[in-house]
Amino acid sequence: MKLGLNLFFALLFCGWVTIPAKAAFIEGLEDLPLAAGLTQITQDNISFGNEESRLVEASFKAHKTSFAKIEKFYVETLPQLGWIFQGKRNKNTLSFVREGETLDIVQEQKSPLIIRITVKNKLQ
After folding, report:
1. Cα separation of 51 and 31, whole Å?
2. pLDDT tens digits, one per residue of 19-54
3. pLDDT of 10
4. H or E element at residue 8
5. For 60, what's the count of Cα atoms within 13 Å in the CB-facing half-sphere?
6. Are strands 101-109 and 113-121 parallel, antiparallel or unpaired?
């Protein structure tokens, strides 16, 4: 985890990773950018763990964007941050891996759009 953050900041400093100036990051997952149009539902956040193990889950709501736009943003952005896209498990779930962790982005509801992002160790 530390290696991933250090790599991200080193690449950002060198100009190899670009994030828009107005980019916001997900509360509880400060190394993941928040896609435009999403609003975090902070009362639904779950977070526990330590340096070796973690589970973080965050929910988001959007009224004026689609899951296709969210998918495009994360499929283009997350590889720049070291996440490897594993594909879609079904039409509503995107899966990524990085340094022993998995990241899933799930469309929970279509209208209004509700998204859940979960980051956890592969062994959990």
Report:
1. 15
2. 444 568 888 788 899 999 999 998 777 776 666 677
3. 56
4. helix 2-14
5. 26
6. antiparallel
What's the confidence (pLDDT) of residue 48?
Answer: 67
For residue 37, the one-letter residue type is G
Residue with tokens 């296709």: 68
Contacts of 77 (CB under 8 A, 6+ apart): 19, 33
Whole-model pTM? 0.76
The answer to whether the peptide bond before residue 20 is cis (omega within 30 degrees of 0) is no
- Please, are residues 17 and 76 in contact by the beta-carbon 8 Å criterion? no
Query: For residue 28, how many other CB atoms are within 10 A of its CB?
Result: 17
Q: Are strands 29-34 and 113-121 parallel, antiparallel or unpaired?
A: unpaired
Alpha-carbon span 8 to 21, nearest angstrom: 16
Distance between CA atoms of residues 124 and 107, nearest Å: 21
